[in-house]
């Protein structure tokens, strides 16, 4: 699998609230590549969707949601930083961004939970900083910051190539409280009658979920999806022969949470590759799990 | 009062996300019993409502919400359990469920906050377990798991027998983050113009709320309903002569929270019997409080 | 600037859930004063809005939200109090309210986080108490309880005098979990096509935000608004010549949170004067910051 697209996606500066940069990249990609896709989607963008993108293929029954935003840091006062989402913070991590004085490449300092930066000059208040990408590809795995969730975005873009019926949503603010999914849910339900959704996102390697053992179907996290729907997905995964693993967690959340709590009757299920080094510059995912993720999405979007 | 229906309700396996079992039981009950009700309701079910049920009687002005789901446990990896909602956990409690290998009756183990099970075989990942019901009826009281909220459901079903105008909703996921009430609120407001709701649920015996002293009207919990509406309910309770108690709490929540936060202008009030042994297998409620609860609901649904 | 209106507003008993008193005051004020306003607004009130008020001027593009409710305390059992919102509590603060036995002026007692009152008689369960207002006006500053957010309300009322196009919303429950903004958002978006909102509220003096240095534009708090929109506001503030300060916080929240999470695509930004003594009887705001706040709102409502 050619992962150069994923490498590009991982290098785009788009923390929560600044998804516009990634959205523009995606729109250019869609314009250039969609002529080769099996079905031409209707592309929904604009003020009704803020910076989100919705692609409608054929007669959709199921939606795929992939969040564009990443975790990061906001410059506060003096050299202080406040987190965007829940970044793993260690002294020495390299952060990048820019303000009116120019490009920034500085060092993160973590001291007993207090975050700050070390840089040759003061950085403008409110400037957002993200991890500097360091792409590492091995035979079996890839490693970089922001595989969560540029890999979920990549998976959705690859899925577009053969998708006949379905909706693909690129969402915002997932890492920091959400806010775009309720808008998209309203449009999907009221305008397209869609009530099923798969969350194309990245999860954790744990004592029960192992790298290289296949895509993960999450039976629950902090939220609990409707069991009858999750069972249907597991049955379809089982019949497909694709490698998959079942996850059960008490914590963690996703765009699924906002579908769950919206005024529209959505069934949702989180399905994604597991990673090590969550929310750090060193997120690591096995290639086999990426391949299984895409295959399972292709299978499910046809069968559901 | 014949409580055999309540006894049946308490024994149904329906933790958050698996309300379908209870919903099917309720639909059978409604089909069998509604011919004897004073007014025949319109029964709303189906994919628009997920596993919830809405009964519309006459020209509704006020809705009653009773949540079907219970707290419980999900099997994680090895012998680990993660909670569904906030169960009270003690080593030795008996849990039941089933997986593909057959029925399960195992023991809960609590060790410094870590939850696990003890059973003769491994239980399938993702299996849900609930307390084994142990129904104990005395002259003045009943005791069992899941009076919260099968008693709220029971109260709503009894109310149906004489209800002329109103909506009865059986809701889902209340114990674990919610998710069904916003859907129901939209339908109630947009299709029926209903803006008033009573939460038929079970509350706590405390230093200010005593067993056997009557149904509880909650003036606030973690959420604060509109005072003018609560005052109106208290005035109606006062004129009715039915035994009631006023509750004031800083914590605790209910389906009322989701009405409060929905995009629809609902007034809501929590009204229910108090119990001891909250979220344990030994929830205890006084019969007098159950009787007062039903009487007050009958009075309020007529007067509001 | 004549601040007698603000002084009146600060003395009205209207904690979360009891906004009706303030709403009635505002409706009388609007009726009496609107004939002198540049444009006559359409006044939306009634059951669709609960106790909120919406004023629609001309062809609105942007809304201003000011919350009417204040923090306070609810009488629980015996002499216990539970907080409404997050009040700063110190033994000796004077609280006022009334119950069926008459007016109340009692003393707050704080003991290791436990709150109670000291008064010559028992106070009725559920009674709400608020800080007794003690208005102190100096040449440069004012000090009283509830400048948060009666000053935001005052700012909105002053803005009405010259407003040509826009919506002014007086909201409820902001200090305690919210609940009215989703309703208003639905109406603003669906009936008026409005998608932009300014949060007229009070923020904190910190090491980066100084009293008397101008109105505060918050770039983020616990929630993160869309950066492109915040940048547009900062650029307009810059060109206006009005004194302003930029704020960056990791915590704190406002009515903006509920716009962010609503099913409607709102851009929002918190803009308000900073105060010392937050949520205490001694909230202090500089007059220069009040003046700058009103000027910036006037400028933005014209330019956005």
UniProtKB/TrEMBL annotation, chains A, B, C:
<dbReference type="Pfam" id="PF05343">
    <property type="entry name" value="Peptidase_M42"/>
</dbReference>
<dbReference type="GO" id="GO:0046872">
    <property type="term" value="F:metal ion binding"/>
</dbReference>
<dbReference type="InterPro" id="IPR008007">
    <property type="entry name" value="Peptidase_M42"/>
</dbReference>
<dbReference type="InterPro" id="IPR051464">
    <property type="entry name" value="Peptidase_M42_aminopept"/>
</dbReference>
<keyword id="KW-0378">Hydrolase</keyword>
<keyword id="KW-0479">Metal-binding</keyword>
<protein>
    <submittedName>
        <fullName>Exoaminopeptidase</fullName>
    </submittedName>
</protein>
<dbReference type="GO" id="GO:0004177">
    <property type="term" value="F:aminopeptidase activity"/>
</dbReference>
<keyword id="KW-0645">Protease</keyword>
<keyword id="KW-0031">Aminopeptidase</keyword>
């Amino acid at each position: 699998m050619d992962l150069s697209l994923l490498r590009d996606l991982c290098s785009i500066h788009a923390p929560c609230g600044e998804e516009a940069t990634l959205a523009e990249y995606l729109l250019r990609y869609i314009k250039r590549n969609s002529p080769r896709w099996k079905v031409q989607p209707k592309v929904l963008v604009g003020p009704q969707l803020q910076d989100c993108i919705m692609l409608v293929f054929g007669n959709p029954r199921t939606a795929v949601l992939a969040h564009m935003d990443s975790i990061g840091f906001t410059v506060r006062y003096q050299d202080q930083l406040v987190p965007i989402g829940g970044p793993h913070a260690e002294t020495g991590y390299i952060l990048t961004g820019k303000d009116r004085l120019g490009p920034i490449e500085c060092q993160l300092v973590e001291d007993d939970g207090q975050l700050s930066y070390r840089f040759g000059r003061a950085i403008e208040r409110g400037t957002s900083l993200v991890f500097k990408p360091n792409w590492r590809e091995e035979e079996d795995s890839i490693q970089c910051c922001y595989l969560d969730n540029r890999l979920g975005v990549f998976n959705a873009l690859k899925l577009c190539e053969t998708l006949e019926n379905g909706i693909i949503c690129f969402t915002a603010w997932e890492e920091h409280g959400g806010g775009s999914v309720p808008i998209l849910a309203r449009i999907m339900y009221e305008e397209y009658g869609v009530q099923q959704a798969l969350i194309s996102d990245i999860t954790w390697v744990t004592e029960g979920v192992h790298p290289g053992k296949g895509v993960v179907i999450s039976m629950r996290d902090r939220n609990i999806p409707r069991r009858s729907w999750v069972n249907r997905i597991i049955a379809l995964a089982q019949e497909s022969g694709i490698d998959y693993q079942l996850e059960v967690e008490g914590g963690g959340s996703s765009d699924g949470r906002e579908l769950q709590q919206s005024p529209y009757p959505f069934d949702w299920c989180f399905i994604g590759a597991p990673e090590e080094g969550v929310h750090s510059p060193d997120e690591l995912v096995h290639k086999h799990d990426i391949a299984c993720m895409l295959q399972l999405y292709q299978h499910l979007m046809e069968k559901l």
